[in-house]
Inverse folding.
Protein backbone atom coordinates (compact mmCIF):
# COMPACT_ATOMS: atom_id res chain seq x y z
CA UNK A 1 0.00 0.00 0.00
CA UNK A 2 2.83 2.42 0.85
CA UNK A 3 4.60 1.81 -2.46
CA UNK A 4 1.41 2.41 -4.42
CA UNK A 5 0.58 5.64 -2.59
CA UNK A 6 4.12 6.97 -3.05
CA UNK A 7 3.81 6.45 -6.80
CA UNK A 8 0.38 8.11 -6.84
CA UNK A 9 1.58 11.10 -4.82
CA UNK A 10 4.52 11.47 -7.20
CA UNK A 11 2.16 11.40 -10.19
CA UNK A 12 -0.14 13.94 -8.52
CA UNK A 13 2.78 16.32 -8.01
CA UNK A 14 4.04 15.84 -11.55
CA UNK A 15 0.61 16.43 -13.06
CA UNK A 16 -0.42 19.27 -10.77
CA UNK A 17 0.28 22.02 -13.29
CA UNK A 18 -2.01 20.26 -15.77
CA UNK A 19 -5.02 20.62 -13.47
CA UNK A 20 -6.63 23.47 -15.42
CA UNK A 21 -6.27 21.58 -18.69
CA UNK A 22 -7.75 18.46 -17.07
CA UNK A 23 -10.58 20.52 -15.58
CA UNK A 24 -11.51 21.93 -18.99
CA UNK A 25 -11.44 18.41 -20.41
CA UNK A 26 -14.31 17.44 -18.07
CA UNK A 27 -16.65 19.29 -20.45
CA UNK A 28 -16.04 16.53 -23.00
CA UNK A 29 -18.66 14.05 -21.83
CA UNK A 30 -16.80 10.71 -21.99
CA UNK A 31 -13.69 12.25 -20.44
CA UNK A 32 -15.74 14.15 -17.87
CA UNK A 33 -17.57 11.01 -16.76
CA UNK A 34 -14.29 9.10 -16.41
CA UNK A 35 -12.62 11.87 -14.37
CA UNK A 36 -15.69 12.32 -12.18
CA UNK A 37 -16.01 8.61 -11.42
CA UNK A 38 -12.28 8.21 -10.81
CA UNK A 39 -11.62 11.22 -8.60
CA UNK A 40 -14.75 13.17 -7.63
CA UNK A 41 -17.62 10.69 -7.37
CA UNK A 42 -20.09 11.74 -4.64
CA UNK A 43 -17.72 14.39 -3.29
CA UNK A 44 -19.08 16.85 -0.78
CA UNK A 45 -16.74 19.69 0.14
CA UNK A 46 -17.51 22.86 2.08
CA UNK A 47 -15.45 26.03 1.98
CA UNK A 48 -15.08 27.66 5.39
CA UNK A 49 -14.10 31.34 5.35
CA UNK A 50 -11.96 32.99 8.00
CA UNK A 51 -13.71 33.49 11.34
CA UNK A 52 -13.96 37.28 11.10
CA UNK A 53 -15.52 37.14 7.63
CA UNK A 54 -17.96 34.40 8.61
CA UNK A 55 -18.99 36.19 11.79
CA UNK A 56 -19.89 39.38 9.94
CA UNK A 57 -21.77 37.50 7.22
CA UNK A 58 -23.65 35.19 9.58
CA UNK A 59 -24.72 37.98 11.91
CA UNK A 60 -25.93 40.00 8.95
CA UNK A 61 -27.86 37.02 7.59
CA UNK A 62 -29.38 36.19 10.97
CA UNK A 63 -30.36 39.75 11.90
CA UNK A 64 -34.07 39.87 12.55
CA UNK A 65 -35.85 43.12 11.82
CA UNK A 66 -38.69 43.71 14.26
CA UNK A 67 -39.10 47.10 15.90
CA UNK A 68 -35.33 47.16 16.04
CA UNK A 69 -32.50 45.02 14.74
CA UNK A 70 -31.47 42.02 16.78
CA UNK A 71 -28.09 40.40 16.29
CA UNK A 72 -27.80 36.90 17.76
CA UNK A 73 -24.72 36.32 19.89
CA UNK A 74 -24.49 32.55 19.34
CA UNK A 75 -22.73 32.37 16.00
CA UNK A 76 -20.87 29.14 15.18
CA UNK A 77 -17.51 30.08 13.68
CA UNK A 78 -15.60 28.02 11.10
CA UNK A 79 -12.78 27.33 13.56
CA UNK A 80 -15.29 25.86 16.03
CA UNK A 81 -16.68 23.54 13.36
CA UNK A 82 -13.21 22.27 12.47
CA UNK A 83 -12.21 21.79 16.10
CA UNK A 84 -15.39 19.85 16.84
CA UNK A 85 -14.75 17.54 13.89
CA UNK A 86 -11.23 16.92 15.16
CA UNK A 87 -12.39 16.17 18.70
CA UNK A 88 -15.13 13.86 17.44
CA UNK A 89 -12.79 11.69 15.40
CA UNK A 90 -10.93 8.72 16.81
CA UNK A 91 -8.14 8.96 14.23
CA UNK A 92 -6.30 12.11 13.09
CA UNK A 93 -3.41 12.31 10.64
CA UNK A 94 -1.38 15.47 9.93
CA UNK A 95 0.45 15.67 6.63
CA UNK A 96 4.07 16.84 6.78
CA UNK A 97 3.45 18.99 3.71
CA UNK A 98 0.71 20.47 1.60
CA UNK A 99 0.61 18.51 -1.64
CA UNK A 100 -0.71 21.52 -3.58
CA UNK A 101 1.82 24.05 -2.26
CA UNK A 102 4.66 21.55 -2.57
CA UNK A 103 3.76 20.69 -6.17
CA UNK A 104 3.32 24.36 -7.05
CA UNK A 105 6.52 25.39 -5.22
CA UNK A 106 4.61 28.02 -3.24
CA UNK A 107 6.66 31.06 -2.24
CA UNK A 108 4.06 32.86 -0.13
CA UNK A 109 2.62 30.29 2.30
CA UNK A 110 4.21 27.50 4.38
CA UNK A 111 4.47 24.23 2.49
CA UNK A 112 4.90 22.32 5.76
CA UNK A 113 1.34 23.11 6.91
CA UNK A 114 -0.46 20.18 5.34
CA UNK A 115 -3.94 18.71 5.40
CA UNK A 116 -5.46 16.87 8.32
CA UNK A 117 -7.25 13.62 7.58
CA UNK A 118 -9.83 12.17 9.94
CA UNK A 119 -11.41 8.75 10.20
CA UNK A 120 -10.39 5.12 9.90
CA UNK A 121 -8.92 5.71 6.45
CA UNK A 122 -6.23 7.89 8.03
CA UNK A 123 -4.68 4.73 9.49
CA UNK A 124 -3.76 3.63 5.97
CA UNK A 125 -1.79 6.74 4.98
CA UNK A 126 1.92 6.12 4.48
CA UNK A 127 3.79 7.37 7.56
CA UNK A 128 6.35 8.91 5.22
CA UNK A 129 3.78 11.63 4.55
CA UNK A 130 2.93 12.52 8.15
CA UNK A 131 1.83 11.14 11.49
CA UNK A 132 -1.12 10.21 13.65
CA UNK A 133 -1.73 12.82 16.36
CA UNK A 134 -3.88 13.67 19.35
CA UNK A 135 -6.84 16.04 19.13
CA UNK A 136 -4.79 18.74 20.86
CA UNK A 137 -1.95 18.46 18.33
CA UNK A 138 -4.39 18.61 15.43
CA UNK A 139 -6.14 21.68 16.83
CA UNK A 140 -2.79 23.41 17.37
CA UNK A 141 -1.89 22.61 13.76
CA UNK A 142 -5.16 24.15 12.57
CA UNK A 143 -4.45 27.24 14.67
CA UNK A 144 -1.07 27.65 12.96
CA UNK A 145 -2.77 27.31 9.58
CA UNK A 146 -5.24 30.07 10.41
CA UNK A 147 -2.45 32.33 11.68
CA UNK A 148 -0.62 31.79 8.39
CA UNK A 149 -3.67 33.11 6.53
CA UNK A 150 -4.92 29.78 5.21
CA UNK A 151 -8.60 28.90 4.89
CA UNK A 152 -10.24 25.52 5.38
CA UNK A 153 -12.00 23.26 2.94
CA UNK A 154 -13.59 20.24 4.60
CA UNK A 155 -15.47 17.17 3.48
CA UNK A 156 -15.30 13.90 1.57
CA UNK A 157 -12.89 14.23 -1.33
CA UNK A 158 -12.41 11.04 -3.32
CA UNK A 159 -9.17 12.23 -4.89
CA UNK A 160 -7.53 12.15 -1.44
CA UNK A 161 -8.65 8.57 -0.85
CA UNK A 162 -7.31 7.60 -4.28
CA UNK A 163 -3.95 9.39 -4.10
CA UNK A 164 -3.19 8.27 -0.55
CA UNK A 165 -4.67 4.81 -1.13
CA UNK A 166 -6.73 4.88 2.06
CA UNK A 167 -9.51 2.52 1.02
CA UNK A 168 -13.17 3.51 1.07
CA UNK A 169 -13.66 7.25 0.60
CA UNK A 170 -16.38 7.12 3.27
CA UNK A 171 -13.66 6.33 5.82
CA UNK A 172 -11.73 9.55 5.21
CA UNK A 173 -12.63 13.16 5.89
CA UNK A 174 -10.29 15.88 4.65
CA UNK A 175 -9.53 19.19 6.33
CA UNK A 176 -7.52 21.17 3.81
CA UNK A 177 -5.81 24.45 4.67
CA UNK A 178 -5.75 26.34 1.41
CA UNK A 179 -3.86 29.34 0.10
CA UNK A 180 -5.18 31.57 -2.70
CA UNK A 181 -2.33 30.75 -5.07
CA UNK A 182 -1.96 26.97 -5.05
CA UNK A 183 -5.26 25.35 -4.04
CA UNK A 184 -6.29 22.48 -6.30
CA UNK A 185 -9.80 23.90 -6.37
CA UNK A 186 -8.70 27.05 -8.19
CA UNK A 187 -9.71 24.93 -11.17
CA UNK A 188 -13.34 25.06 -9.98
CA UNK A 189 -14.54 27.52 -12.68
CA UNK A 190 -13.08 25.24 -15.36
CA UNK A 191 -14.78 22.04 -14.17
CA UNK A 192 -18.10 20.86 -15.49
CA UNK A 193 -20.97 21.71 -13.17
CA UNK A 194 -21.57 18.09 -12.13
CA UNK A 195 -18.22 18.23 -10.34
CA UNK A 196 -17.94 21.92 -9.41
CA UNK A 197 -21.37 21.95 -7.73
CA UNK A 198 -20.03 19.60 -5.07
CA UNK A 199 -17.93 22.36 -3.54
CA UNK A 200 -20.14 24.79 -1.64
CA UNK A 201 -19.83 27.63 0.84
CA UNK A 202 -20.55 27.28 4.53
CA UNK A 203 -24.35 27.56 4.98
CA UNK A 204 -25.42 31.08 5.88
CA UNK A 205 -22.25 32.69 4.52
CA UNK A 206 -22.70 34.89 1.48
Amino acid sequence: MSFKSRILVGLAKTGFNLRFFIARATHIKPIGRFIEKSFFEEDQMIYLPKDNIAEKSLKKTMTVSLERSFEPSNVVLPSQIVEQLIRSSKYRFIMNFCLCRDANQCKDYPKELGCIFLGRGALNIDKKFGRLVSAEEAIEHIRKCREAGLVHLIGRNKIDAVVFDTGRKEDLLSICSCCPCCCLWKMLPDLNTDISSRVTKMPGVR
